[in-house]
Design goal:
Layout (H helix, E strand, L loop, with lengths): L1 E8 L1 H8 L3 H17 L3 E6 L5 E5 L6 E5 L7 E9 L3 H9 L7 E7 L11 H13 L8
Antiparallel strand pairs: 1-5, 1-6, 2-5, 3-4
């Protein structure tokens, strides 16, 4: 099963990180990533830049584009990992090991599997081919 670990930071976490040694933060995250890789569970992961982004709101037609998402920060989506584990409990254990501090949260969500969709759909079939070409599906090794 694949799980997405969605890292969210509050203003408290962002302020606390400004007083921390950035090299120490990168080292702790690098060590966590290395552990995930050595265990064979890491499929993908990225951190998001702190610079401004934008929001595309589909309530309007055409969609409305606005600056964001930093207007009223309650929780900022600041990065993610996608891991592949044998069980939900294993994903939870990996999430607990993430080196985050107060004000940070990890939301853990299961990623839909190709088998959950209508296998006769043209684009489900195309996506399976694309995944084969890209080599994006691989078995769990732990």
């Amino acid at each position: 099963m694949k799980y997405m670990l969605i890292m969210r930071s509050t203003d408290q976490a962002i302020e606390a990180a400004q007083d921390m040694d950035f090299d120490a933060i990168i080292t702790a995250m690098g060590q966590y990533n290395e552990t995930l890789i050595k265990a064979g569970v890491l499929l993908a992961g990225e951190g998001l830049a702190m610079e401004e982004g934008f929001i595309v709101d589909f309530d309007a037609d055409p969609p409305l584009v606005s600056d964001g998402p930093y207007g009223e920060t309650k929780e900022l989506f600041s990065g993610f990992w996608i891991i592949q584990t044998s069980t939900k409990d294993e994903a939870l254990e990996w999430a607990k090991r993430c080196p985050l501090g107060p004000g940070s949260k990890l939301e853990v969500r299961r990623v839909s599997e190709m088998e959950e969709f209508d296998q006769n759909n043209e684009y489900v079939q195309k996506e399976a081919g694309w995944r084969d070409e890209l080599g994006t599906d691989r078995p769990v090794t732990s």
